[in-house]
Fold SDR family oxidoreductase.
Amino acid sequence: MNSVQNQGTALVTGASSGIGAVYAERLAARGFDLLLVARDLERLEAAASKLRAAHGVQVEVLKADLTQKDDVLKLEQRLRSDSSISLLLNNAGVAADGLLANADMDQLERLIQLNVTTVTRLASAAAASFTKAGRGTIINIASVVALFPERFNATYSASKAYVLSLTQSLNAELEGTGVQVQAVLPGVTRTEILERSGIDASQIPADMIMEAGEMVDAALSGLDQGELITIPSLPNASEWEAFMAARHAMAPNLSRSTAATRYK
């Protein structure tokens, strides 16, 4: 295991529960100091005490509501100014259930702020800071609904498709800088996000729900293998490769001077 000094600090958003809490534990075990960000300060401090005792790393907690721009700007500034931060986990997010036509638009606006705007601002700050340092890792938690939007709520699916696209574009921008980028696309994962979004987990087949620990371990294995896109539950990686190959096959014909003959 590398020393803490070599690993630097991992900034984890949504760190008080679920996927973020598991990542915090796994990254501490890998020797990262931690900057844990969430709204629930009491839970953050309890987690920090356990992590310090178990792994001997430094853990700082920061209470922030990342649907609020002022809190996002403070965290963004920290990313830009703190050269010890070497990993950003963009994990904080919310889901929503129900039809777009009769949705609570204020709720959806908060979802977009957290799942899209905050992720973008933090990724931008990390990209600037990490490029300057010539090293660093940006992990964005997306979702498999980015690939199958018809199966879930329109706004949530669209927000995760944005995270996938952002990651792919950012990776191209950062080529040769020493910065590693990864998008993780979990399926249904057993976390509090299910309850908070009003989804009844008992209505989902048990063989579709992954435990958070298994999901994060798979995601970190994908990171270690240098994957840009990690889909923890996909048994056959060649299916993703075929999907990407089909996309690249279309590329030369996506922008041409004449319309396709079927439209004439």
